Amino acid sequence: MTEKELYQQWLEHATEDPDLQQELKSIAGDDAAISDRFYRDLEFGTGGLRGVIGAGTYRMNIYTVRRATQGLANYVNSTFENPSVAISYDSRIKSKMFAEASAEVLAANGIRVHIYTELMPTPMLSYAVRAQQCSAGIMVTASHNPAKYNGYKVYGSDGCQMTIDAANAVLEQINALDIFRDVKHVAFDKAMADGVISYTPQSVIDAYYQEVLKQSIHPDLCAKSGLKIVYTPLNGTGNKPVRHILSAIGIQDVTVVPEQENPDGNFTTCPYPNPEIREALECGLKLCREVKPDLLLATDPDADRVGIAVPDGDAYALFSGNEVGAMLLEYICEQRTQMGTMPKNPIAVKTIVTTDIVNAIAKAYGVEVIDVLTGFKFIGEQIGFLEKKGEENRYIFGFEESYGYLAGTYVRDKDAVVASMLICEMAAYYRTKGISMIEARKRMYEKYGVYVHSQHSFTFEGESGMIQMQNIMTKLREEHPTEIDGLKVIQFDDYQTGISKNLVSGTKTEITLPKSNVLAFALEQGAKVVIRPSGTEPKIKAYYTVTADTHDAAAVKEKSLDTAFSAMILN
């Protein structure tokens, strides 16, 4: 079917959401606008769906959500006996609508649905899957994307985001479906009355909170520390859970950023509700100048990531995800070792683009480090491997540079609720020792060396952008540089072919991780560049690592490396 034919089909059939009809009529005769919405399907990958909210096959709407859910229903029904699915959703525009639309499709296919009574964070969806012994889970969220986006993450029965093989099986089912003709659905209220859809009980929420609290190393420390917090949920799902946990560990002095306290899918005060970006924290930083807290906490809309800022003289300094993760690992290792609670043969897990200072910290405490591909599902997968061997207690911590952390094995995704608790506990611990967070970071770098990391995202919108991204990756793969910014490339790793090439010796070795469209260049002087296309956004992401004796020297090196590599891929 041509794009114009698809457009006419949607005009005729996509009548249940008035917003879609209004949008479709507004683009009548605009070939470019029609093409942008219909030139392809919204891709279902290992992360599920993510896209701009609106009308068309390349948009997030109840029809693309229903079709994906019908594909999931077909897969679940063919794989499990008496299947059930847990559903949660965040504060984004139409999130509740998409969650209920998913529930209606599942119910019509005879699948039991457990849905939260209100918006809940991603980690609480991961927990609900396992706590209710579900076959799969759906989290309606676009994480930290701008307000025009929404998405739909699919989880397996293990509470991890769906594996590549399972996602491909679901995709095969989806591709066989006509979006209007082949999708079953039943009214939400009727399915609820029939008992096919039910609300996730409070007991599951309470059990989740208990599991989070079990990860505390010094449960009584915070109440006595006098720690003062400013917190922003960035208009998302973290407000209730994070405040509940902070209260439970005895932190009473919590000031919530008023403009960002309540759910708001428009994110009017933070166009990019991402705690990695300073602009998202500006309201919180402004409040910090009045309240003068020990710590600013900011969780993203689905509360799986958390960012922080700490006092630095008269100002507040933002810490990177790599820094917070490394400091948490050091804190957990040091304190558990001192208290005698460190397991035998402990394991920490990180992604391949996460700071290498982890290796130095782990070596000091006898911890094994496992490197995995980018994406927290691969960290969750490692916990699952340990669980199958009855060794899940060996896992002490996992994190990725993009502000995602997890202590404990009760969920299989990053968790800003437990991370917020541990960050506050760590800050409280240092406060009782008369050490600021700035000083604690400085001591870590003095002990293990200065590592500076950064990320540069290159955006390529639309169909032409997709082609440009593919061309860039192909050129770097086939004509990979032997030098970047005057530094020789020592090793070139292609995770798609599974080949690691040592450019000094000329030897090749096999990469044992799953195939992925990622390229890595190890350079002289401990520098590194890793590049990959985003799985959820129209972006290519470059990750830089430099090492130096001081932060200032490292910052100069990092800027130079970014400039040189940016010119290389954009020319």
Protein described:
The chain is α/β, with parallel strands linked by helices and 571 residues long. It is built from 19 helices and 23 strands. Strands 16, 17, 18, 19, 20, 21, 22 and 23 form an 8-stranded antiparallel β-sheet that branches. Strand 18 and strand 19 form a beta hairpin. Helix 1 packs across helix 3 (31-38), helix 11 (239-248) runs parallel beside helix 16 (416-432) and helix 13 (321-339) runs parallel beside helix 14. The protein is globular. The two termini are 37 Å apart.
Using brief descriptors, characterize the structure shown.
8-stranded antiparallel β-sheet; 21% strand; 571 residues; alpha/beta
Unreliable parts: none
Mean pLDDT: 95
Q: Count every beta strand, where a strand is a DSSP E run of 2 or more residues.
A: 23
Give the N-terminus to C-terminus distance in angstroms: 37 Å
Total number of helices:
19
Mass-distribution shape: globular
Q: Could you tell me the radius of gyration in angstroms?
A: 24 Å
Beta content comes to: 15-25%
Helix content: 40-55%
What does the main sheet amount to? 8 strands, antiparallel
Structural class: alpha/beta
